[in-house]
Every structure is written in structure tokens, then in C-alpha cells.
């Protein structure tokens, strides 16, 4: 490993702000994974559902989960840029 990379790693480990943003990114990624799994499970449940009322409820939940996941992805991208 080059000396420059080593210096950057030590700086990121010692800098509390960088450490905080790193853990925030990690937590956000975990949340996004859970949201994606939840959205996929809702889609599967929607496909199996025969009741129109329940299907409408699942569609609303899918829209909500999808919107929240997109917001989270946007925040994650903005964190990576800065």
C-alpha cells in the first residue's frame, strides 16, 4: 500500500467527523437494503393477493417504500459527492 493511502486511512480513522459520516453511510446502506427487501416482499404478497382491498393497500405500501428508498439513495449519493 502506498504511503498516501496509508495517510488517508489514518486521517479518516482519527478524524471524528469522517468517522461519523462513515458510520452514517454504513447505517444508511443497511436501511436501504432492508427497504429493498421489504419492497420485494410486498410485491410478492401483492401477486398472491386476490382481494381487491388488500391489493390496493399493498400497492400503497409499495409506493411508500419505493419513495423512501429513492430518497435514501439520493441522500447517499450526495454524501458520496462531498
Keywords, separated by commas or semicolons:
single chain; mainly alpha; 82 residues; 91% helix
Structural notes for this entry:
This protein has three helices and no strands. The model has no long low-confidence stretch (mean pLDDT 89). Helix 2 packs antiparallel against helix 3. The protein has helices spanning 3-14, 16-48, 52-81. The two termini are 25 Å apart. It has 82 residues and is mainly alpha-helical.
Number of strands: 0
Q: How many DSSP helices?
A: 3
pLDDT < 50 stretches: none
SS-based class: mainly alpha
How would you describe the shape? rod-shaped
Helix content: over 70%
Q: What's the gyration radius in Å? A: 19 Å
State the order of secondary-structure elements, H for helix, E for strand: HHH
What share of the residues does DSSP label as strand, in percent? under 5%
Largest sheet: none
Distance between the termini: 25 Å
Mean pLDDT: 89
Layout of strands and helices, then pairs:
Elements: H1 3-14, H2 16-48, H3 52-81
Helix pairs in contact: 2-3
Short description:
This protein is mainly α and 82 residues long. It has three helices and no strands.
Amino acid at each position: 500500500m502506498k504511503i498516501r493511502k496509508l495517510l488517508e486511512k489514518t486521517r479518516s480513522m482519527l478524524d471524528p467527523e469522517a468517522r461519523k459520516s462513515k458510520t452514517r453511510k454504513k447505517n444508511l446502506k443497511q436501511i436501504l437494503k432492508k427497504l429493498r427487501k421489504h419492497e420485494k416482499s410486498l410485491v410478492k404478497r401483492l401477486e398472491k393477493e386476490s382481494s381487491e382491498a388488500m391489493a390496493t393497500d399493498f400497492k400503497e405500501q409499495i409506493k411508500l417504500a419505493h419513495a423512501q428508498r429513492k430518497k435514501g439513495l439520493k441522500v447517499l449519493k450526495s454524501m458520496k459527492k462531498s
